Task: inverse folding
Protein backbone atom coordinates (compact mmCIF):
# COMPACT_ATOMS: atom_id res chain seq x y z
CA UNK A 1 0.00 0.00 0.00
CA UNK A 2 2.87 2.38 0.81
CA UNK A 3 4.36 1.87 -2.66
CA UNK A 4 1.01 2.65 -4.28
CA UNK A 5 0.75 5.85 -2.24
CA UNK A 6 4.24 6.90 -3.29
CA UNK A 7 3.34 6.28 -6.93
CA UNK A 8 0.13 8.28 -6.50
CA UNK A 9 2.06 11.17 -4.90
CA UNK A 10 4.40 11.22 -7.90
CA UNK A 11 1.38 11.20 -10.22
CA UNK A 12 0.00 14.25 -8.41
CA UNK A 13 3.21 16.17 -9.13
CA UNK A 14 3.08 15.22 -12.82
CA UNK A 15 -0.62 16.05 -12.95
CA UNK A 16 -0.14 19.64 -11.86
CA UNK A 17 3.26 20.40 -13.39
CA UNK A 18 2.99 18.66 -16.78
CA UNK A 19 -0.42 17.03 -17.10
CA UNK A 20 -4.14 17.71 -16.93
CA UNK A 21 -3.94 19.80 -13.76
CA UNK A 22 -3.42 23.05 -15.69
CA UNK A 23 -4.59 23.71 -19.24
CA UNK A 24 -1.42 25.66 -20.10
CA UNK A 25 0.52 22.42 -19.61
CA UNK A 26 -0.95 20.66 -22.61
CA UNK A 27 -1.59 23.80 -24.65
CA UNK A 28 2.19 24.11 -24.96
CA UNK A 29 1.99 21.14 -27.34
CA UNK A 30 -0.15 23.05 -29.86
CA UNK A 31 2.76 23.99 -32.21
CA UNK A 32 3.84 20.33 -32.29
CA UNK A 33 0.30 19.19 -33.10
CA UNK A 34 0.03 21.82 -35.85
CA UNK A 35 3.26 20.58 -37.40
CA UNK A 36 2.07 16.96 -37.35
CA UNK A 37 -1.25 17.86 -38.97
CA UNK A 38 0.53 19.84 -41.67
CA UNK A 39 2.77 16.89 -42.50
CA UNK A 40 -0.29 14.59 -42.71
CA UNK A 41 -2.15 17.04 -44.96
CA UNK A 42 0.91 17.25 -47.19
CA UNK A 43 1.06 13.45 -47.44
CA UNK A 44 -2.66 13.29 -48.30
CA UNK A 45 -2.24 15.98 -50.97
CA UNK A 46 0.64 14.10 -52.55
CA UNK A 47 -1.45 10.93 -52.66
CA UNK A 48 -4.40 12.71 -54.26
CA UNK A 49 -2.53 14.73 -56.90
CA UNK A 50 -1.15 12.53 -59.71
CA UNK A 51 1.10 15.39 -60.84
CA UNK A 52 3.14 15.15 -57.66
CA UNK A 53 5.91 12.50 -57.66
CA UNK A 54 5.04 9.35 -55.75
CA UNK A 55 7.97 9.71 -53.35
CA UNK A 56 6.25 10.55 -50.05
CA UNK A 57 7.85 11.11 -46.68
CA UNK A 58 7.45 7.81 -44.83
CA UNK A 59 8.15 9.05 -41.33
CA UNK A 60 9.02 12.19 -39.45
CA UNK A 61 10.85 11.56 -36.19
CA UNK A 62 10.97 14.01 -33.31
CA UNK A 63 12.96 13.55 -30.12
CA UNK A 64 12.13 15.21 -26.81
CA UNK A 65 11.91 14.74 -23.06
CA UNK A 66 8.97 13.87 -20.82
CA UNK A 67 8.23 17.60 -20.56
CA UNK A 68 7.09 17.39 -24.19
CA UNK A 69 5.62 13.89 -24.29
CA UNK A 70 3.33 14.28 -21.27
CA UNK A 71 1.68 17.57 -22.39
CA UNK A 72 1.33 16.18 -25.92
CA UNK A 73 -0.47 13.04 -24.76
CA UNK A 74 -2.76 15.28 -22.71
CA UNK A 75 -3.40 17.44 -25.75
CA UNK A 76 -4.58 14.32 -27.57
CA UNK A 77 -6.81 13.43 -24.63
CA UNK A 78 -5.22 10.04 -24.02
CA UNK A 79 -5.91 7.93 -20.93
CA UNK A 80 -9.18 9.73 -20.22
CA UNK A 81 -12.77 8.67 -19.76
CA UNK A 82 -15.48 9.89 -22.12
CA UNK A 83 -16.74 12.38 -19.55
CA UNK A 84 -13.33 14.05 -19.20
CA UNK A 85 -12.57 14.55 -22.89
CA UNK A 86 -15.19 17.31 -23.18
CA UNK A 87 -13.46 19.28 -20.44
CA UNK A 88 -10.12 18.91 -22.20
CA UNK A 89 -11.60 20.07 -25.50
CA UNK A 90 -12.90 23.15 -23.70
CA UNK A 91 -9.44 23.46 -22.08
CA UNK A 92 -10.48 23.12 -18.47
CA UNK A 93 -8.19 21.56 -15.84
CA UNK A 94 -9.12 18.13 -14.55
CA UNK A 95 -9.40 16.82 -11.02
CA UNK A 96 -6.28 15.10 -9.63
CA UNK A 97 -5.89 11.30 -9.94
CA UNK A 98 -7.90 9.27 -7.47
CA UNK A 99 -6.12 8.11 -4.34
CA UNK A 100 -5.48 4.36 -3.99
CA UNK A 101 -7.13 1.94 -3.69
CA UNK A 102 -9.42 3.68 -6.20
CA UNK A 103 -8.62 2.96 -9.82
CA UNK A 104 -7.20 5.62 -12.14
CA UNK A 105 -6.31 5.55 -15.82
CA UNK A 106 -3.71 8.32 -15.81
CA UNK A 107 -0.43 7.05 -14.34
CA UNK A 108 2.98 8.59 -14.76
CA UNK A 109 4.55 5.14 -15.10
CA UNK A 110 2.32 4.52 -18.12
CA UNK A 111 2.35 7.96 -19.69
CA UNK A 112 6.08 8.66 -19.40
CA UNK A 113 8.27 5.71 -18.45
CA UNK A 114 11.86 5.51 -19.66
CA UNK A 115 12.08 5.72 -23.47
CA UNK A 116 8.46 6.83 -23.72
CA UNK A 117 7.18 7.56 -27.21
CA UNK A 118 3.99 8.54 -29.00
CA UNK A 119 3.28 7.72 -32.65
CA UNK A 120 0.60 9.11 -34.92
CA UNK A 121 0.22 6.87 -37.97
CA UNK A 122 -1.67 7.91 -41.10
CA UNK A 123 -3.38 5.07 -43.00
CA UNK A 124 -4.96 5.18 -46.43
CA UNK A 125 -8.00 3.03 -47.11
CA UNK A 126 -7.26 0.79 -50.12
CA UNK A 127 -10.74 1.31 -51.61
CA UNK A 128 -10.61 3.26 -54.89
CA UNK A 129 -14.36 3.71 -55.44
CA UNK A 130 -16.97 5.66 -53.55
CA UNK A 131 -20.31 4.43 -52.30
CA UNK A 132 -21.88 5.10 -55.72
CA UNK A 133 -19.37 2.97 -57.57
CA UNK A 134 -17.77 6.01 -59.19
CA UNK A 135 -14.30 7.36 -58.75
CA UNK A 136 -13.96 9.10 -55.39
CA UNK A 137 -14.11 12.88 -55.30
CA UNK A 138 -11.42 14.70 -53.27
CA UNK A 139 -13.65 14.94 -50.16
CA UNK A 140 -14.24 11.19 -50.20
CA UNK A 141 -10.54 10.59 -50.73
CA UNK A 142 -9.77 12.66 -47.64
CA UNK A 143 -12.23 10.56 -45.64
CA UNK A 144 -10.39 7.41 -46.73
CA UNK A 145 -7.44 8.38 -44.53
CA UNK A 146 -7.35 7.29 -40.90
CA UNK A 147 -5.20 8.20 -37.90
CA UNK A 148 -4.00 5.68 -35.35
CA UNK A 149 -2.21 6.59 -32.11
CA UNK A 150 0.33 4.31 -30.49
CA UNK A 151 1.81 5.09 -27.09
CA UNK A 152 4.94 3.18 -26.15
CA UNK A 153 4.36 1.00 -29.24
CA UNK A 154 0.89 0.00 -28.01
CA UNK A 155 -2.31 1.08 -29.83
CA UNK A 156 -4.48 3.26 -27.61
CA UNK A 157 -8.08 4.32 -27.99
CA UNK A 158 -8.84 7.91 -28.96
CA UNK A 159 -11.46 9.34 -26.56
CA UNK A 160 -12.08 12.32 -28.86
CA UNK A 161 -13.06 9.88 -31.62
CA UNK A 162 -15.64 7.89 -29.65
CA UNK A 163 -12.95 5.68 -28.17
CA UNK A 164 -12.02 4.11 -31.50
CA UNK A 165 -8.51 3.02 -32.45
CA UNK A 166 -8.73 4.29 -36.04
CA UNK A 167 -10.10 7.80 -36.46
CA UNK A 168 -10.98 9.31 -39.87
CA UNK A 169 -8.52 12.09 -40.56
CA UNK A 170 -11.17 14.79 -40.91
CA UNK A 171 -12.81 13.69 -37.65
CA UNK A 172 -9.43 13.68 -35.91
CA UNK A 173 -8.67 17.14 -37.25
CA UNK A 174 -12.05 18.52 -36.17
CA UNK A 175 -12.69 16.82 -32.83
CA UNK A 176 -9.28 16.01 -31.41
CA UNK A 177 -7.04 18.78 -32.78
CA UNK A 178 -9.57 21.43 -33.76
CA UNK A 179 -10.54 22.67 -30.26
CA UNK A 180 -6.88 23.53 -29.58
CA UNK A 181 -5.78 24.91 -32.95
CA UNK A 182 -7.32 28.31 -32.36
CA UNK A 183 -4.19 29.12 -30.37
CA UNK A 184 -0.82 30.15 -31.73
CA UNK A 185 2.58 29.96 -30.12
CA UNK A 186 2.61 33.75 -29.74
CA UNK A 187 -0.80 33.87 -28.07
CA UNK A 188 0.19 31.13 -25.62
CA UNK A 189 3.63 32.39 -24.68
CA UNK A 190 3.26 36.17 -24.82
CA UNK A 191 3.00 37.64 -21.35
CA UNK A 192 0.14 40.08 -20.99
CA UNK A 193 1.25 42.71 -18.49
CA UNK A 194 -1.35 44.98 -16.95
CA UNK A 195 -0.12 48.13 -15.29
CA UNK A 196 -1.99 49.66 -12.39
CA UNK A 197 -2.49 53.41 -12.25
CA UNK A 198 0.79 55.01 -11.28
CA UNK A 199 1.24 58.76 -10.67
CA UNK A 200 4.15 60.77 -12.03
CA UNK A 201 6.25 60.39 -8.88
CA UNK A 202 5.74 56.62 -9.01
CA UNK A 203 6.88 56.45 -12.65
CA UNK A 204 9.94 58.58 -11.88
CA UNK A 205 10.82 56.32 -8.95
CA UNK A 206 10.49 53.21 -11.14
CA UNK A 207 12.68 54.82 -13.80
CA UNK A 208 15.51 55.46 -11.34
CA UNK A 209 15.18 51.96 -9.90
CA UNK A 210 15.51 50.52 -13.39
CA UNK A 211 18.47 52.80 -14.11
CA UNK A 212 20.33 51.84 -10.92
CA UNK A 213 19.69 48.13 -11.40
CA UNK A 214 20.87 48.33 -15.00
CA UNK A 215 24.17 49.85 -13.86
CA UNK A 216 24.62 47.32 -11.12
CA UNK A 217 23.75 49.58 -8.23
CA UNK A 218 21.59 48.30 -5.42
CA UNK A 219 19.61 51.23 -4.02
CA UNK A 220 18.89 51.10 -0.31
CA UNK A 221 15.35 50.89 0.89
CA UNK A 222 13.91 53.48 3.21
CA UNK A 223 14.46 51.19 6.15
CA UNK A 224 18.20 50.84 5.58
CA UNK A 225 20.48 52.96 7.79
CA UNK A 226 24.14 53.71 7.28
CA UNK A 227 26.22 53.99 10.43
CA UNK A 228 29.52 55.86 10.64
Result:
Amino acid sequence: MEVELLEWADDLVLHYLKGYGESINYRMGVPLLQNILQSMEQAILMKQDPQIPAAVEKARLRFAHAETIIPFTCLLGLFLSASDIERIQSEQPLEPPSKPPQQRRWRGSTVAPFAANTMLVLYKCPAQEGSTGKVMVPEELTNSFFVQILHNEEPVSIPGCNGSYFCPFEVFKERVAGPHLRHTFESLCTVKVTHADCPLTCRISRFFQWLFLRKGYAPHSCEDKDEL
Notes: Strands lie at 118-124, 145-151, 154-155, 167-168. The first strand starts at residue 118 and ends at 124. Residues 129-141, 219-228 have pLDDT under 50 and may be disordered.
